Amino acid sequence: MTVITEDPGAANAAFDAAVAADERIEPRDWMPDGYRATLIRQIAQHAHSEIIGMQPEANWITRAPSLRRKAILMAKVQDEAGHGLYLYSAAETLGVGRDELLDKLHAGRQKYSSIFNYPTLTWADVGAIGWLVDGAAIINQVPICRCSYGPYARAMVRICKEESFHQRQGYELLHTLSKGTAEQHAMAQDAVDRWWWPSLMMFGPPDDESAHSAQSMAWKIKRHSNDELRQRFVDICVPQAEILGLTLPDPDLKWNEERGQHDFGAIDWSEFKEVLRGNGPCNEQRISQRRQAHEDGAWVREAAAAYALKHSEES
Ligand SMILES: [Fe+2]
Ligand SMILES: [Fe+2]
């Protein structure tokens, strides 16, 4: 869709028609300011989550129990850096600079997913993150492949393929531990006990409290509600937990014949809000490590800029 018009009413109508017809909005198309701002906020938060999410798992790279596990984990963490890059690039098409977004992250003015403020206490956490956290990310992100904004939708296609590898490596890791010694099984169970509830919180607040949901659905940035996606995740995880031989830590979790879905217990939203407010177990550490990494990388950015300048002068 390309709109070349001076008439704001006509531009708005063309935008609405394109969204209604499931056409993609592209960077040069006219779009409402609110649509642009919503996308910048969401894509930035998504990009920040990818790169902050590298920290809890990178914590275990040097202590992976075998060369095979280490190679897999390094590949996975590196994928997350790549996801961050695709997403910062998608955000840049909306007219915002990557350095500006990183400054906001470092200053605490933009968020990242609250899940990454929890610590990785044992090796089994790497498995639980892959199975549950990457699993929840897939459920959230597959519908974004059909997002109305072209660059975001296209970035998500490749990201989802890689997330599915992440989910499987976590599942396979947990399966190995669960079927191993009694000690390994207990370690796997403990990790699932700690990651289950925060994973459910990844889908965001309940629908009746979700501030941006209705408008995002109307703009087709978002295709399903938070509660709908959360339910889908629970229904997928229950049979997988059975195969793993692990228990999900929710006594109220049971099949509801009438609904054809699982009922599950109440989520502790006060914990979610506390973590969002910056009071999770690792918030400070995550941001200070990120700032440090950014400072440590200053010479690389300077060298790259100097190199680019030299080449532009030569040509
Ligand atoms: Fe990712
Ligand atoms: Fe991932």
TrEMBL record:
GO MF annotation terms: phenylacetyl-CoA 1,2-epoxidase activity
Which keywords fit this entry according to its UniProt record?
Answer: Oxidoreductase
Q: Which InterPro entries match?
A: Aromatic_CoA_ox/epox, Ferritin-like, Ferritin-like_SF, PaaA, PaaA_PaaC
Gene Ontology CC annotation, any one: cytosol
What top-level class of enzyme does the UniProt entry assign? oxidoreductase
Its Enzyme Commission number(s) read: 1.14.13.149
Tell me, what is an example of a GO biological process annotation in this record? phenylacetate catabolic process
Q: Name one Pfam family in it.
A: PaaA_PaaC
Q: Say which domain of life the source belongs to.
A: Bacteria
Give the protein name, as stated in the record.
1,2-phenylacetyl-CoA epoxidase subunit A
Q: Which gene encodes it?
A: paaA
